[in-house]
């Protein structure tokens, strides 16, 4: 009986110690994109490629350059913290870049962004293995 009580007490204390670890403070910062749709260039408010005049006036949004810059700024701000960069897919389709290069350009920019994990969206399958296999390599 004494052995059983000692084992029970030891088990209870071990359980108590492990439970404390699971309730420790932990912050996870998640940076996320989805539905990029091959928007390599910045767009204007009509979702068309920006003109030089619109670019000068600061009327453009999006594009690979702005996205890479925003990610770098957030990572710098969160340096030393737990950060995940995620993509939920649909990086293909929607611009002349995809129609011409079939994911090669998108893949290069996405690799530069250094995602921790990516999912494939439905548009990654639009052109079958011909476009998807090189993107996955």
What portion of residues belong to β-strands? 5-15%
Instruction: Give the radius of gyration.
Output: 24 Å
How many strands, which pairing sense, and closed or not: the largest β-sheet?
A: 3 strands, parallel
Low-confidence stretches: none
User: What is the approximate shape?
Assistant: flat
| H-E string | HEHHEHHEH
> Alpha-carbon distance between the termini?
63 Å
Oligomer: single chain
Descriptive tags:
10% strand, mainly alpha, 137 residues, 6 helices, single chain, three-stranded parallel sheet
Give a verbal description of the structure:
By secondary structure, the chain is mainly α. The chain has a domain at 22-39 and 67-136. Helix content is 47%, strand content 10%. The chain has 6 helices and 3 strands. The protein has helices spanning 2-22, 52-56, 64-77, 96-101, 104-113, 128-136, and strands at residues 28-33, 82-87, 117-118. The protein has a 3-stranded parallel beta sheet, covered by helices on one side. The longest helix has 21 residues, at 2-22. It is flat, with a radius of gyration of 24 Å. The model has no long low-confidence stretch (mean pLDDT 88).
């Amino acid at each position: 009986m004494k052995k059983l009580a000692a084992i029970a007490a030891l088990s209870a204390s071990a359980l108590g110690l492990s439970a404390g670890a699971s309730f420790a403070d932990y912050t996870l910062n998640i940076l996320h994109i989805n539905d990029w749709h091959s928007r390599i260039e910045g767009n204007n408010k009509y979702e068309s490629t920006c003109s030089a005049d619109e670019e000068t006036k600061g009327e453009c949004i999006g594009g690979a350059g702005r996205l890479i810059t925003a990610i770098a700024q957030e990572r710098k701000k969160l340096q030393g913290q737990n950060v995940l960069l995620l993509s939920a897919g649909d990086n293909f389709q929607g611009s002349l870049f995809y129609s011409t290069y079939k994911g090669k350009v998108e893949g290069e920019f996405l690799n530069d962004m250094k995602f921790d994990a990516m999912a494939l969206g439905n548009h990654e399958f639009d052109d079958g293995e011909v476009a998807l296999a090189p993107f996955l390599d």
